[in-house]
Design goal:
Elements: H1 4-25, H2 34-44, H3 46-59, H4 61-65, E1 72-78, E2 92-101, H5 104-172, H6 178-212, H7 236-246, H8 248-268, E3 275-284, E4 288-297, H9 304-372, H10 378-412
Antiparallel strand pairs: 1-2, 2-3, 3-4
Amino acid sequence: MTMQIPAVVLALALLGVRAHGEAGVSQSSTTLNLRLVLETVRRDNPEIRAAAKRWEASQKRAIQAATPDKPRLDIERMYTPNSGNVFSDPEEKSLSVTQEVPFPSTLYLRRSAALQEAQMKETAYRGKILEVVTMARAAYSGLFLAEKSLQVLDENIGIMRRFSRVAEAKVASGKGSQSDALKAAVELTRMLNMRVALQSEVRSSQASLNGLMGREPRASLWPTAEPPTQAPAGTSEELEAQALAARPEAAGAALALRRSDTGVALARSEFLPDFMLQYRRRSDPLRGGTHDAVLGLSLPLWFWKPAAMVAEAKAEVEMAKAELQAVRLDTQAQTFAAASRVSATAKLLEAYRTTLLPQAEESLKVAETGYQADRTGFLDLLDSQRALLNFKLEYYQYAAEYETRAAELDRLLGREK
């Protein structure tokens, strides 16, 4: 009776694995590559579309800033008798048009400031693309890791099935211990529990990637292909220089400094007068038809107000300079760190590919052969199998981490991939 317990557990576990394998065959063999994902993200992501519209809206403000306020039309009917109609019986009628115009340089500076604001919105749009693309690459690598971990686990479940059959055969022949069969059953059950957690991780990663692609969370996705690995080209100094020249945040900080300089000039323009132009036509019984022209100028008598505006604008210039310096230092530090992480992860991947995985596979083969020949115990076989499983999972974890780190570096370098 005690011999039947592990057999029942193994039968139920293996039945679940076999059913999954049959269901997996029906999936499409088409793979989802990173290039297709990023194309969809750039086209359909709502955050990117919103940033594009903000940039588009800001481009329309330059015309508004360079255009004076709308003119005013005045129609007057004067000296109408109390018993008369104000519209038809006035003794004097006049029609005037008034236009208020800022000092010409003020309009130019307002237009320049609006154009600089539009350029800042453009860099923000470029930065949003890089930000979302980086998030998409991280989500893609997370989905790839979950899918590959599930695949590796299924392969090891198949290996454990083979070990279980060997253990059962040895028990049946009287050469093995019943505990070996129980250990195989427990290990297989542990793997099946891991499989449930990985399936949940796959669904969660799919939902995240679908959201970035502008799709419903439950939309189906093809299996992902392994993202390519390529070490960053150039020295750390070259990468830092490239990041300073191309990172949208650095460009935005430089534009903010230019905008602050324009703000100082705008504040100083408050010391200059604004103009009021007026033309008026009048008719009355004594003089007949006459017309007038008026030129008015505003007097900046309250000089302390524009002086305070200039002081405020100068403080904003100093603030913009400090922020630009902070962004430049942050860019250099982040680029150096990101390049180091990418390089280190690439070396780890190479070590797993060329050394650790081949050694673990060979160790498992030796342990299995030794167990079948009664030269090693079942625990040694389990240790070799677990080592191979862990090494494969770690390899794909580093592959996903490499893509995430490379995405961070590309974002700093202003590259969309």
